[in-house]
Amino acid sequence: MKIKDVMSRDVQVARPADPIQEVAARMGAGDFGFLPVSDGTALVGTITDRDIAVRGLGQGKPGSAPVSEVMTSTVTTVLDSDDLKSALDLMASARIRRLPVLDRHGNLVGVVSLGDLSARVKEKSVGETLETISRAG
What we know:
Blueprint: H1 20-30, E1 34-39, E2 42-48, H2 49-56, E3 78-79, H3 84-94, E4 98-102, E5 108-113, H4 114-120, H5 124-134
Parallel strand pairs: 3-4
Antiparallel strand pairs: 1-2, 4-5
Keywords: CBS domain
InterPro entries: CBS_dom (IPR000644), CBS_dom_sf (IPR046342), Diverse_CBS-Domain (IPR051257)
Protein name: Putative signal transduction protein with CBS domains
């Protein structure tokens, strides 16, 4: 099975200059805690609700601070043509729950999450990946 068969295609993005308060409000309204950050067509990072809380508010940044000040700029990605196993292996080794998905031209085309995988794939490896990610340090 390929990543493109299980990924979420309807992906909202944040821009590096977006205020973190605006992004937090979008996350709350959409009931999600993760957004890829793109500058034009280039994926430049990701931001999570935890990034906003810990790197933003926890460090005294105002709600008007730009996403670029709190985002994670080192991004692990997969290609939409990759096998499902490659996403599971990356998630387990990097201990992450969501991966931006790129096409062969490097354009963001979706996100694959453990939630997507657990809802759409009935493989033992999904549970094993969650267990690996959830293990303490």
